[in-house]
Amino acid sequence: MQTHQIANYKANEIIRKCVHCGFCLATCPTYQLLGSELDSPRGRIYLIKSSLERNDFSTKSIKHLDRCLTCRSCETTCPSGVEYSKLADIGREFVEQKRPVWQKVMRYSVRKLLTTPVLFNPIGFVAKHSNKQGRVITPSENSKKVLLLGGCVQGVLAPNINHSVKNILAKLGFEAIETPQKQCCGAIDQHLSAEHDALEKVKINIDSWLIQQVDTIISSASGCGLMVKDYPSLFDESDPYYQKAKHISKKTQDIAEFLVDKDLSQLNLEKANISYHEPCTLQHGQKLAGLVDSILQQLGYTPAPVKDSHLCCGSAGTYSIFQPKLSQVLKSNKLKHLQAANPDMIVTANIGCLMHLQKDSKIPVKHWVELLDN
């Protein structure tokens, strides 16, 4: 795609990779629902391009950019390697200046609510999905240490997830040091165009985690894991934090990546017929499509085939808050496909997807690691 006088070098480079092929249209959830070119990745790229070239835009651009889930399904499909999600962040930050004041206030309030423990915890306690289940397995004294991301909401909403992770790791000879709730990964701020606040959190995390004498940082929430793996992209290569961010990124693994080559035969498994929902942040963001499914199959589970498994469930971080109608349609479609085989349980790999799906599902929804700590 030809560009003219776009000052942002990164945006210009990304836009020029787009060849108008339209492959992204077939995998974009919002285009599939709305049928509008402006609600497709190609259409949004054009909106961002026009805005940056003219240094001006209409408020309609905000609407179309806000409708994007940033699921990155288009990146998986794109034959030209267009880094759409990075361009979307640039575009959203640019158009933020014309956002109505009431929207800015609402977005700021949601950001602070979700990332400030003293504000979120009372609400999170009421909306809690599950409590810790089962005994705590104490790691042996000579266990190798790993860092486990606690998350800003997961520990309150579903504490059994990391409880199970720590038990599984203890059985495998590892001690998990869990990060405190206040160490938010920064994803919520980043995706709501609050780059300054996101970078503050990211730098604090980097400095804190570098002190830890661990070789591996484990995430059990695929959204958080993706954000941490993306830390280097937030800094210029000349920034002192760039190399630090690369170091942290290389150490970070989703729990599935960490477990895939381990001997899991000693674990006590919960017997259940399951359907597995693969989060967008895992399959499109971290490029780990099929990994959890393969582990589950090796353990004797047979996840039911799920139609349109590449499409988003509609959670997408704060998307379900700001785009409730579209989010609800996506969730209904996803649950229809997940429940088609009448499973005993639906499992997933991200706290946002879990909470979103469980709200309208009569079938229990759990994190897949909870199956391994029965």
Structure explained in plain terms:
The protein is an alpha/beta fold and 374 residues long. Helices cover 49% and strands 7% of the residues. The strands form two sheets. A four-stranded parallel sheet has the order 2-1-3-4. A three-stranded parallel sheet has the order 5-6-7, covered by helices on one side. Helix 3 (41-54) crosses helix 6, helix 4 (59-66) packs antiparallel against helix 6 (84-95) and helix 12 (195-211) crosses helix 14. The radius of gyration is 20 Å and the shape is globular. The N and C termini lie far apart (53 Å).
Tell the overall outline.
Answer: globular
The averaged pLDDT comes out at 94
For this structure, the CATH topology of one domain is: Rossmann fold
Which spans have pLDDT < 50 for at least 5 consecutive residues? none
Fraction of residues in H or I helices = 40-55%
Q: What is the β-strand count?
A: 7
Could you tell me how far the N terminus lies from the C terminus, measured between alpha carbons in angstroms?
53 Å
CATH hierarchy: architecture of one domain: 3-Layer(aba) Sandwich
Helix-strand category: alpha/beta
| Top-tier CATH class of one domain | Alpha Beta
- Gyration radius (Cα, Å) is 20 Å
The ordered string of helix (H) and strand (E) elements is HHHHHHHHEHHEHHEHHEHEHHHHEHE
Q: Please give the oligomerization state of what you see.
A: single chain
Note the total helix count: 20
